[in-house]
């Protein structure tokens, strides 16, 4: 009986091994882990006492695989991710200093933009803030400012143009 069970599992392994590896690879993006987990599915299948009692073998096989993938993900979360520090690409990345320039640039640009906005005429500033900060339509802004929607469009256009020119001027 044990030999028949083992032969049955080996046939099952031969028929579904590639599909199981692909299943794991799609979820883990690591070929070595995908291969190991596919092997683990078959180790668990060998422990099943009565494989004849399984109605849908494919569904059972992929249920075991899904559970293994979840266990693997949970184990990785508990352990944290590991990095092979002997890997040349990792060593190169660790040798480079952290780049904070882009964050500093963004902070400077935001500061400059705030200064430029403060220098706008009051109605232009109000139109920009209502449209881009509060998300109001041109009709709603027109009602708030007591002007026509066409005038709001003109305010916004003029304000954006001045902001662009001043931002370019401040970056030099």
Can you describe what's shown?
The chain has 8 helices and no strands. With 172 residues, the chain is mainly α. It has 2 domains: 2-81, Rna Polymerase Sigma Factor, Chain: A (Orthogonal Bundle), CATH 1.10.1740; 101-171, Winged helix-like DNA-binding domain superfamily/Winged helix DNA-binding domain (Arc Repressor Mutant, subunit A, Orthogonal Bundle). Helix 1 (2-28) runs antiparallel to helix 2, helix 2 packs across helix 3 and helix 5 (101-118) packs across helix 8 (149-171).
Topology:
Elements: H1 2-28, H2 31-46, H3 57-79, H4 88-95, H5 101-118, H6 122-133, H7 138-145, H8 149-171
Helix pairs in contact: 1-2, 1-3, 2-3, 5-8, 6-8, 7-8
Which structural traits does this protein have?
2 domains; 172 residues; 8 helices; elongated; Arc Repressor Mutant, subunit A; mainly alpha; single chain; 78% helix
Q: What's the tally of helices?
A: 8
Shape: elongated
The name of the CATH architecture of the largest domain is Orthogonal Bundle
Rounded to an integer, what's the Rg over CA atoms?
Answer: 31 Å
Strand content: under 5%
Task: Give the averaged pLDDT, no decimals.
Answer: 79
The SS-based structural class is mainly alpha
For the record, what CATH class of the largest domain applies? Mainly Alpha
Ranges where pLDDT stays below 50 over 5 or more residues in a row are none
The tally of domains stands at 2
List the secondary-structure elements in sequence, H or E.
HHHHHHHH
CATH topology of the largest domain: Rna Polymerase Sigma Factor, Chain: A
Number of strands: 0
Distance between the termini: 83 Å
The helix content is over 70%
Q: Give a short account of the largest sheet.
A: none
């Amino acid at each position: 009986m044990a030999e028949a069970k083992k032969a049955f599992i080996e046939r099952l392994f031969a028929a579904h091994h590639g599909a199981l590896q692909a299943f794991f690879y799609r979820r883990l993006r690591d070929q070595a882990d995908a291969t190991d987990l596919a092997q683990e599915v078959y180790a668990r299948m060998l422990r099943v006492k009565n494989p004849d009692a399984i109605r849908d073998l494919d569904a059972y096989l992929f249920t075991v695989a899904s559970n293994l993938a979840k266990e693997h993900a949970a184990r990785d979360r508990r352990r944290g991710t590991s990095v092979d520090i002997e890997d040349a690409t990792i060593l190169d990345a660790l040798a480079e200093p952290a780049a904070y320039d882009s964050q500093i640039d963004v902070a400077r640009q935001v500061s400059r933009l705030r200064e430029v906005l403060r220098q706008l005429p009051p109605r232009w500033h109000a139109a920009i803030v209502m449209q881009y900060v509060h998300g109001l339509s041109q009709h709603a802004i027109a009602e708030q400012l007591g002007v026509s929607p066409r005038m709001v469009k003109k305010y916004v256009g003029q304000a954006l143009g001045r902001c662009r020119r001043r931002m370019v001027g401040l970056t030099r």
